[in-house]
Amino acid sequence: MFKRIFLFAAVLFCVATTSAQTGSSGGAAPQNNSLSGVQWGAGLPRFAYPFGSKEFEQLNGGRSRQVGSYNFPISKNMAGVLMELDPGALRELHWHAEAAEWAYVISGQTRITLTGPGGQAEVADVNAGEIWYFPKGWGHSIQNIGHETTKFVLVLNNGEFTEQSTFNLSDWISHTPMNVLTEGLGIPLSIANQLPNSVRYMLPGSISSVGTLKKPAKNPKQLPHAFTLLSRTPVFTDGNGTLKLVTAKEFPASFNMSAAIIHLEPGSMRGLHWHPNADEWQMVLNGHMELMVFPSGGKGAVETLNQGDVGYVPKGYGHALKNLSNDKPLDVLVVFNSGEYQSIDLNKWLALTPSEVVKINLQIPEDRFSQFPRNTPLFEGAR
Ligand code: MN
Ligand code: MN
User: Fold this and answer.
1) Which end of the chain is more exposed for a tag (fewer CB within 10 A), N or C?
2) What is the distance between the alpha carbons of residues 129 and 141, in angstroms, rounded to a whole number?
């Protein structure tokens, strides 16, 4: 009896929300109503984190905030840092013991330095729309060489990564006995005494102190660690959206991470799919979207993300993204913890499977089945 009342109420609720949505200007509200009574997200961890509305930690020369498994538990295998540097400021020389760093510059101009275990040395200018990749354990620094604040997002392939766990030059110097410093660096005590005696992490600077780009002599086997993403030709494009991709094939230094920028026109959707080989870390660059996740086990989740918010889809979980705006495009940065891009789309799967099997599985007659499209695009237009 109780169940019947609940079902009746649920149906009434769905009818009410459906008509409310039809009556609205359409598309702006999440269409997550269902007659089956699924409680979206019930019993599941959150797949989205309101990163865009979090406060920055103010630092000397810039600011940063971070997201990882400590505040966003589903993101076990990747963490993110949003960082801003004031003109001339330096994120000091450091390395990470347990994570590689993949980064996308959102705005401004940066200069990176990188040093590897084989004597590799690299200096490169990385501007808005471009990326870098620092292998795990390699020493690196980032400086703002432009007149505007630069903003970039770091994606680390370890969910437990925090900026507090980085190995910073000033930290090491200030926590090494003076006699070891003088002997280890071959410097007199008078100089050792003047070195930093506390952790700097970030250092303010001025544009006038920025030198010209001096590229070190290159080992012929050395791979470049800076590349572009935004200016790449899309690997897929139609009237509903584009997909720009950078994998280890185009950018071999980034052997274990790849990324995409998905652009969706108002109301369009990146259709139902999954990635057999990688987790997916997302950040909304512009716009407002809905993330649908199918984690198996009789559950489903629907999340709404605004600009700057972060989504996470574990390897193999089914998902789709929809631009919720009626009039503005959506751009999403998507980073994978594999150098190879693999995806299986539900519409393609159904189209490639013998119709006899699909008809039995979906329990539909021939005339219904023939309404499934044979062409299987990546994106779907507004409906
Ligand atoms: Mn770093
Ligand atoms: Mn995906």
Assistant:
1) N
2) 19
Task: Specify the pLDDT at position 36.
Answer: 75
Instruction: Check residue 32 and give its pLDDT.
Output: 52
Question: Residue 96 catalytic?
Answer: yes
DSSP string, 71-95: TSTT--S-EEEEEEE-TT-EEEEEE
Closest ligand to Cα 141: 1
Report CA(312)–ligand 2 centroid distance (Å): 10
275 is an active site residue: no
Quick check: is 270 catalytic?
no
Ligand nearest to the CA of 101: 1
Q: Is 163 a catalytic residue?
A: yes
Q: Verify whether residue 183 is a known catalytic residue.
A: no
Query: What is the longest distance spanned by two Cα atoms in the chain?
Result: 88
Distance from the Cα of residue 26 to its chain's centroid: 29
Q: Where are the beta strands (DSSP E) in 213-339?
A: 226-228, 236-238, 241-246, 258-264, 269-274, 280-286, 289-294, 301-305, 310-313, 318-323, 330-336
Q: Which pLDDT tens digit goes with each residue over 343-382?
A: 999 999 999 999 999 999 999 998 998 888 888 888 888 7
Among residues 202, 195, 170, the alpha carbon closest in space to that of 64 is found at 202
Q: How many angstroms separate the Cα of 108 from the Cα of each of 143, 148, 201, 285, 302? A: 11, 6, 20, 15, 34
